[in-house]
Amino acid sequence: xxxxxxxxxxxxxxxxxxxxxxxxxxxxxxxxxxxxxxxxxxxxxxxxxxxxxxxxxxxxxxxxxxxxxxxxxxxxxxxxxxxxxxxxxxxxxxxxxxxxxxxxxxxxxxxxxxxxxxxxxxxxxxxxxxxxxxxxxxxxxxxxxxxxxxxxxxxxxxxxxxxxxxxxxxxxxxxxxxxxxxxxxxxxxxxxxxxxxxxxxxxxxxxxxxxxxxxxxxxxxxxxxxxxxxxxxxxxxxxxxxxxxxxxxxxxxxxxxxxxxxxxxxxxxxxxxxxxxxxxxxxxxxxxxxxxxxxxxxxxxxxxxxxxxxxxxx
Length: 314
Hints:
Blueprint: H1 3-30, E1 42-46, E2 49-56, E3 60-65, H2 81-84, E4 88-93, H3 110-125, E5 129-134, H4 137-147, E6 152-158, H5 163-166, H6 172-182, H7 186-193, H8 197-208, H9 217-226, H10 235-242, H11 251-256, E7 261-266, H12 272-282, E8 287-291, H13 298-301, H14 303-313
Parallel strand pairs: 3-4, 3-5, 5-6, 6-7, 7-8
Antiparallel strand pairs: 1-2, 2-4
Helix pairs in contact: 1-7, 3-4, 6-7, 6-10
């Protein structure tokens, strides 16, 4: 071995060790506040792992499906969960790979989530159920109704994902990106850099919230913890998301299903009006309702307005 080769190997080893140490510190700091802990946690033993959920209230069943971005979990609905339970039996789940649910090292797809929702409704809820879904989870709600319409009542979508983006399939570039994120040390380091508290603060300020004053420390802690709970296995959903494996074309399903579908959308989200109009063009019976001065999460920014609208729709 030459001196130059030995130096390169030593530096490579040092870099790997440094990234490993940073990774462990980041995971330790991210979960110290127990932002997702709750005495009401329940678990559904599904075929690919345990799915954490909470349940409250009486009345017609309502299932809440959170967004699929990094750090997402059922915490997203914490400002409307209790109020909804006054008139409904509400179920809020952490979908597999998110929150406090199990995070197996698999490729996460839209079909996987559709099947998990169908099984959850049949085996846990046991009744015809309405669904409230946010962002990327909107496609799961639509495909669930298309695949097993008898178990679904009404559907409410909050800022559903742009149909053009849902049509994008995995490419060589996105497959390589998934492969990178899946790698043990370097991929984990890259993942940790995009899931720090400051990274979430920037993302929420620029894209998710219209009013930065609504971005509380509690929200940041919950998303940071979800993205690192319990350890680096939390990155596998992010890898699948960036690889476009969660995307699915729902246009055919939108045209075919005859369920009541409502869309609630933030007026300040970029190109949101155009995205909503695309849904209406494929299913004119869909009704859409704007929530002013909000972006991706109107139920976190203006929860009272969203609850009033849901009270009318459901």
